[in-house]
Write a structure and sequence with these properties.
The structure is a homotrimer of 134-residue chains. Chain A has 134 residues and is α+β, with helices and mostly antiparallel strands. Chain A is 22% helix and 37% strand. Chain A has one domain (2-133): Sandwich (Jelly Rolls).
């Protein structure tokens, strides 16, 4: 399979990193098919949303609201409230599949592909991209 | 790739429009494979849920509860509270992949494919369907 | 298509059942491609999260928080609060796609594939796995 793993720096604060350019570069010239964007981590997800008008920060802040970093979680490894990070991928899935037409992702004008990582303890993350030809 | 874009009217109120028939018509006769249902918009998602017993309206109402249309959002374009629409696709993904067996989606009895669009400002939406043969 | 349906017992309480082994067995020896894990039920989803440190129980408990089993739902069939189960799959999708490299899912160390089923009324569930070769 045409597949590749790249690393990105997510830092020590919750983040939504734009990986659109990396995925776009991977599919360039590959013709028609589907690209799978898969994050092999248990505390991260892939979101397809707008960036540039504040929605990426809105998302990070709202995740904190929906999954509070308090003592409610049974999972108690890592930083306080880290159990919240482990519930996140059930909602913001680590897997996304995007159609590719003539080597270009068929995204809408305002869509970007983001790696969502609320985990403070890991500063680098891997992303696997895989292309299935039509 | 066997891919097609269709338009549907979503109107000026938050809606969950049943697009099962459109996707079913697209895959008919195509044999075995996967169908990708992808919405190229930054304020819409694809949900696979039941319709007919009120769950589509339950979903729309509950989205309002989980993503309140108030002034908390940094994204401030469009109607008041529109920032909520931009966080939605991180949870209700714009991308869904459904197995197709002998030209028919392998949905359960009570599953329908819905286009979820809480955005009041756009009255029409595009949906891209793509078929990958097994 | 290389596709198969297996049944698992989910019992009469909300559960997150680990189906990683079943999916792993299905893809073994199949080479490179994508595996689709699809649950043909309207009140269940597929989550890719960690198990073993409590996160599966955290998820089930938090679903109860985010989708309360009270009288707010229009969908009124089944047990009290069952309408909540019908909104779940819009967030925890019944469809997941995972890359497969040389017959092995490219999961991270801490990722497991879970069938999330908050529905108390159905004690057995089907899961369809389908493999698309690269």
């Amino acid at each position: 399979m045409d597949t590749e793993v790249f690393r990105i720096r997510t830092g020590d604060a919750p983040s939504a990193a734009d990986i659109t350019g990396r995925v776009a570069a991977f599919v360039r010239g590959k013709g028609d098919g589907l690209v799978s964007v898969f994050v092999p981590h248990a505390t991260a997800g892939v979101a397809i949303i707008e960036t540039g008008a504040g929605s990426d920060r809105d998302l990070i802040r709202h995740l904190d609201e929906l999954f509070p970093r308090d003592s409610r979680w049974r999972h108690r490894h890592g930083a306080p409230g880290h159990g919240a990070d482990h519930v996140l991928p059930a909602f913001v899935s680590p897997s996304a599949v995007i159609p590719v037409v003539d080597g270009v992702m068929a995204l809408g004008t305002w869509q970007s592909v983001l790696l969502v990582d609320t985990n403070r303890d890991n500063h680098h993350r891997s992303v696997r991209v895989s292309f299935i030809s039509a």
